Every structure is written in structure tokens, then in C-alpha cells.
From TrEMBL:
Residues 57-76 are annotated as: Disordered. The keyword Transmembrane helix applies. This is dCMP deaminase. Residues 88-200 form the CMP/dCMP-type deaminase domain. It comes from Coffea arabica (Arabian coffee). PROSITE patterns: CYT_DCMP_DEAMINASES_2. The chain crosses the membrane at residues 12-31. It is an enzyme of class 3 (hydrolase). The gene is LOC140003736. InterPro entries: CMP_dCMP_dom, Cytidine_deaminase-like, dCMP_deaminase-rel.
């Protein structure tokens, strides 16, 4: 360290390094804090079971942010036992419903649905949105109309997540489920109709 110029260069480099570290740490904590976590624990059962052989897992969110902690385990390469804390089937299907809800463009409520057969096969997934082929930007997302015109609200157009899950059914995997799916579709259609009528 010969000259004062060296000291200036060294101090500037140290200051910039410290600034960069602070930025990286703040960035990490900011995004970790903001990220949504799956709002359930691995022991809960969230599927809505019915007398039919199809189960619908539904996630509905309006922005609340409960957290789910996954504990880290020390890894022993000689340990033959299976991993602990893995997702239960129900939480697995709920996680898929939760993830699907994240695709919804409804600013007020994001709903995701995962339709599962009794033997754990995913038949279809969906989220609330406008019908296929309709632009998300052409139809209104409002809950109320200033003119009292229901056609200026989302309700006549939006398809419920469960209905979309049925419409998105993979027909090959749904072989043998058709009759219960049909009954289920009718029930969901009636549910959607009742919901719409109740909003008027
Ligand atoms: O079972 C349901 C109920 C509602 N949805 C969808 C339909 C709408 O996009 C919203 C409800 O909007 P609000 O602003 O909470 O009235 O949720 C559904 O997919 N499935």
C-alpha cells in the first residue's frame, strides 16, 4: 500500500462490496417474505369427498398468507429409511389446486380445483376464468356494475374452477369415471347456477 490513491481504491472496493452484500441479503429476505406458501399442513385432509368415486380438491384464496414449515433433516448417506415430511396425497392434490389458482386472473378470488379418482388418479385440473377463446381483457372482472347491469360484471361469464376441471378432464384417464363425472358435472353446473342466481 504505497500511495493514498491505493487507499482510496481499496476503500471504494470495500464499500461497494458491502453495498452489494446488503442488497443481496435484502433481496433474499424481501422475496422470501413475499412468496406465498401452501396454506395447509401435511396432516390435514382437504379433499371434498362425496358418495361418487371422484374427489374434488379446491383451493380458494383472497391473498391471505399462512405459512407451512418444512423442517430440514440432516442427511445420512447410510440411512435406509424414507424421507419424512413428504406431502400426503391430499396435500399433493391440494398443492396442485393451489398452484392452479395462481393462474386465475380474477382480482378478487383465485380458485383452483383438482379432480381426483378414488384410486388417486388426477382426472382434471382447472381454475376460475373466462371460457376458452374469450379474451381475459375483453370481459369485465368487476363484481358490481355502476349501471346495475349484471352483464357488466364477471358473474355471467366466469367459469368456476371445478367446472373447468371437469371440462379439462383427460378423457383417457377418465375412462370408467364417465357416469359419475356426468352426475358430478350436473351438480357442479347446478352449484354454479345457484351461485350466479344468488349474486343477482
Ligand atoms: O365454487 C366456486 C365459487 C366461486 N368461484 C369463482 C367464481 C369467481 O371468479 C370467484 C368469486 O368471486 P367473488 O368476487 O368472491 O364473488 O370465484 C369458483 O371458481 N368456484
Amino acid at each position: 500500500m504505497n500511495s493514498s490513491r491505493d487507499w482510496v481504491v481499496l476503500s471504494t472496493a470495500a464499500a461497494l462490496g458491502a453495498l452489494a452484500s446488503i442488497s443481496v441479503i435484502s433481496f433474499y429476505f424481501f422475496f422470501n417474505g413475499k412468496r406465498k406458501r401452501f396454506p395447509f399442513s401435511s396432516s390435514t385432509s382437504n379433499g371434498r369427498r362425496s358418495s361418487s368415486n371422484v374427489v374434488v380438491f379446491k383451493s380458494s384464496s383472497n391473498g391471505s398468507d399462512e405459512s407451512r414449515e418444512i423442517k430440514a433433516q440432516p442427511l445420512n448417506p447410510f440411512d435406509p429409511s424414507k424421507r419424512k415430511g413428504y406431502l400426503s396425497w391430499d396435500d399433493y392434490f391440494m398443492a396442485i389446486a393451489f398452484l392452479s389458482a395462481e393462474r386465475s386472473k380474477d382480482p378478487n378470488r383465485q380458485v383452483g380445483a383438482c379432480l381426483v379418482s378414488q384410486n388417486g388418479i388426477i382426472l382434471g385440473i382447472g381454475y376460475n376464468g373466462f371460457p376458452r377463446g374469450c379474451s381475459d381483457d375483453m370481459l369485465p372482472w368487476s363484481k358490481k356494475s355502476k349501471n346495475g347491469n349484471p352483464l357488466e360484471t364477471k358473474y355471467p361469464y366466469v367459469c368456476h374452477a371445478e367446472v373447468n376441471a371437469i371440462l379439462n378432464t383427460n378423457h383417457a384417464s377418465a375412462a370408467g369415471q364417465v357416469s359419475s363425472n356426468f352426475v358430478f358435472s350436473l351438480l357442479q353446473f347446478l352449484e354454479a347456477l345457484c351461485y350466479y342466481v344468488s349474486m343477482q
